[in-house]
Design goal:
Elements (H helix, E strand, L loop, with lengths): L5 H9 L3 H12 L10 E5 L8 E13 L2 E12 L14 H8 L2 H4 L1 E3 L5 E3 L3 E7 L3 E7 L11 H16 L1
Antiparallel strand pairs: 1-2, 2-3, 3-7, 4-5, 6-7
């Protein structure tokens, strides 16, 4: 089990080598012409009570693309996969990674009658850090419609969660 303070974890995310971020940023930007990530910021966003979550951070920056400079952002969820010995438990931190890597979360989603698309955040990969755990890279949804949702959106979310749990 990894024992790290949140400040240590965010500092490590800020100091990641650009070779770790380059494939993630290419995926976020949908642009393989990006060949350098010159700098980035990392800031904590929210907290988690989940077993093994070391921190959740918004990582963002600006890159040169074939059509000019563009901003990018992604969420990095740092996890200690050894936080529990029961990897089959629903609270095990590696279950989220397994769900993303299986493609299951990419298959679920729908559009509400008012045109809102409901789906899981896109998965951009994972990175194993020998001394700090694992980073799950997912889509930054900070531009998504904020809570509280209207009744129709909330009903659609409840329907999808029920459908997901039924599988």
């Amino acid at each position: 089990m990894i024992h790290k303070e949140r400040a240590d974890v965010i500092e490590r995310v800020r100091q990641l080598d650009q070779t770790v971020l380059l494939p993630v940023v290419r995926e976020v930007m949908k642009d393989d012409s990006v060949n350098h990530v010159p700098g980035w910021t990392a800031a904590p966003i929210g907290t988690s009570i989940a077993v093994g979550t070391l921190g959740i951070f918004k990582v963002s920056g600006e890159v040169a693309t074939g059509t000019g400079k563009k901003r990018w952002s992604v969420v990095a969820k740092a996890m200690d996969l050894a936080a529990t010995s029961d990897h089959a438990a629903h609270t095990s931190p590696d279950r989220e990674i397994i769900a993303y890597e299986s493609g299951l979360l990419a298959q679920i989603g729908s559009t509400t009658a008012n045109g809102r698309q409901l789906r899981a955040a896109k998965h951009y990969g994972i990175h194993e850090m020998t001394d700090m755990g694992t980073i799950l890279w997912v889509e930054d949804l900070s531009a998504a419609p904020p809570i509280p949702w209207d009744d129709e959106t909330l009903l659609e979310i409840v329907r999808q969660v029920g459908q997901f749990n039924g599988h």
